[in-house]
Design a protein that fits this description.
globular
Length: about 500
């Protein structure tokens, strides 16, 4: 039976919802709904209807099911954008209304949101940012690490846009004073996309950040990460250790989680028990137990780690070491003969040791339990269509802290239709690996400085900047891009 649904605002406020899967026109009525609402529903539907009583829990479930699904398919969105001129054309369909969820038809704003997500997936965006300002609404994509503004609709669209996103993520549309987090699951181009929703109140309205999580991009094998041969072989040997702590460091968005997922997937042979503690869980990993932290009920990394020994896990991945409690719990877990993975936010591999010391982790614990620290960055890859060759000059060698070698050809970005005029398409990971061998262990016992540990660890192996150089001379990225991502390392860590 085809019948028009109430608007979300009416359904939630009045406690009424059209049950479209019934043989006759039926309205679900939440416990406590006012009788006057039934008269309003009769007028809105234009005909008589049957009633079905529901307790609050059942009603909320039906409400979420009815309004979290989008009525616009991907093909419809793509066709509409192609025939009418892109994302801008979708704004034209939106009527003048204070809140589209209170209007008779909310399809235009749904179409706009679907179009934004569809275009973001098409352009390989990792995030969508919706920022309200005094006189406009800014919608930007994060592509290859950089923000690109794609739409600047009138600010009046902020309320309906945010409200509809809240509905899709099953959040409270009435709450506008506190941050909220949620998720949306959808299909795009035959792929499963998880959209992580974060809403934050600001001066001019609510700001929305949508993180697009593509499972296909997360489940990379260790060989697909692009490590240089030396780093890959040494890291593979570290993964064969039966116990200890393995850390991955780097700034936000440097691919640390992908490296951790690839590592534990390599170890997921079926005869070991693996668990992840994450905040939040980003991707589903087959055959691995995953637990999401919830600080509101006291479920923190440290507390979860201290209580999983009875679960008989062999390997645990902790999303991030943020404090001494988590650090100590991870090292204590590893000291019982198990393997622990985690991340830290530091600039270099040796810097992770300094950070752990500053947190208060005992030196003897690090020396006996820490197995390796991997530092990594992501640099943008030059567009193969438009990159232009140049001859390497002394200034390029100086920038990379290198002695000038034989004449070489480098490449610089230009910009074309294929790369969205950015000059780049995709990203490359670069790594440095500090393995805690007997020499490093002795330095830890001796409370050596970060520089002393760094010099010993990379006397015979490459640092970040040195691994980045091979991509520069292979024509995969530019000198300027390497300096942007590894500026400190380029200045202090040259040959």
């Amino acid at each position: 039976m085809s019948v028009r649904q109430f608007t979300y605002a009416f359904a939630k406020d009045k406690g009424l919802i059209v049950l479209t899967d019934r043989p006759v026109l039926t309205v679900g009525v939440r416990d406590g709904a006012h009788a006057m609402a039934l008269i309003e529903a009769r007028r809105a539907l234009g005909r008589a209807y049957a009633l079905e009583a529901m307790d609050k829990a059942v009603f909320e479930r039906e409400l979420a099911q009815a309004f979290s699904q989008s009525p616009m398919g991907e093909t419809d969105v793509e066709a509409a954008m192609a025939s009418r001129g892109g994302l801008e054309s979708l704004i034209e369909d939106i009527p003048e209304a204070a809140d589209l969820l209170g209007a008779a038809d909310d399809a235009p704003v749904i179409r706009l949101i679907n179009g934004l997500i569809h275009e973001a997936v098409k352009r390989r965006a990792s995030d969508i940012h919706v920022d309200p300002f005094e006189d406009k609404l800014s919608i930007r994509y994060r592509i290859d690490g950089d923000l690109v503004e794609v739409l600047t609709p009138p600010r009046k669209l902020a309320a309906p846009l945010v409200s509809r996103i809240k509905v899709m993520a099953r959040l409270d549309i009435a709450e506008r004073r506190l941050p909220q987090d949620g998720r949306i699951s959808l299909q795009a181009g035959g792929r499963s996309i998880d959209v992580r929703v974060a809403i934050l109140p600001t001066r001019f309205g609510e700001r929305v950040a949508l993180r697009l999580l593509d499972t296909q991009n997360a489940l990379l094998s260790l060989e697909q990460l692009g490590m240089d041969t030396d780093t890959y072989q040494r890291f593979d040997q570290v993964l064969q250790q039966p116990n200890g702590v393995i850390l991955v460091t780097g700034p936000v968005g440097s691919g640390k989680t992908t490296t951790l997922y690839s590592s534990i997937s390599r170890l997921n042979t079926g005869n070991v028990n693996i668990m992840t503690l994450e905040d939040p869980v980003e991707y589903g990993l087959p055959g691995i137990s995953q637990t999401q932290m919830d600080a509101k009920v006291g479920l923190t990394f440290g507390r979860a780690l201290r209580n999983i020994l009875r679960q008989d896990f062999n390997i645990v991945m902790v999303g991030e070491i943020r404090d001494l409690e988590t650090a100590e719990a991870a090292f204590e877990f590893a000291s019982t003969g198990r393997l622990a993975f985690s991340t830290l936010h530091t600039n270099s591999a040796a810097g992770a040791i300094t950070r752990l010391r500053d947190m208060g982790v005992e030196t003897y614990m690090m020396a006996s339990t820490l197995r390796a620290v991997m530092a990594q960055r992501l640099v943008r890859k030059l567009c193969d269509v438009c990159k232009t060759p140049i001859t390497a000059m002394p200034v390029h060698y100086d920038a990379l802290n290198m002695a000038q070698g034989p004449e070489a050809t480098l490449y610089e970005p230009v910009g074309c239709m294929a790369c969205g005029n950015s000059g780049f398409h995709g990203r490359i990971a670069i790594y440095e690996l500090l393995v805690v061998d007997p020499a490093i262990r002795s330095l830890l016992h001796a409370n050596a400085t970060e520089d002393e540990i760094d010099q010993a660890a990379f006397a015979a192996h490459h640092r970040l900047i040195e691994n980045a150089r091979r991509h520069v001379f292979a024509g995969e990225t530019s000198v300027a891009e390497v300096l942007r991502v590894c500026r400190k390392e380029a200045r202090d860590g040259g040959l």
